[in-house]
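Researcher: For the annotation table, I need structure tokens for RING-type domain-containing protein. Please keep the output clean. Sequence:
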Amino acid sequence: MKKRCKDPTIDTVRGELDSFIKKFTNFFPIKQPVNEDRNSCAICMEKYDDKKCIECTLLCGHRSCFECLNKLPNKQCPMCQKAFTNDQIIKLF
Ligand SMILES: [Zn+2]
Ligand SMILES: [Zn+2]
């Protein structure tokens, strides 16, 4: 009975995976975000929290805090001008 202590396919797969990851990271270099604007409101620049600056998203996918969206005089997305109604403000908290 032959006893294999090591399965060569695992090394092959691992090697392929490594080169794939290397290729992948070259293709999409991981960049540090310029600023943390995914975590803060685009209008008032406040960081999102669960009380004062509640992160909300609109149907168009743009985000802003509930306060700012709620007090916009014209109910339009501040980023793409898409009209929205108050019940289309989706709270993320
Ligand atoms: Zn805001
Ligand atoms: Zn929008």
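Researcher: And a one-line annotation?
Model: DSSP finds two helices and three strands in the chain.
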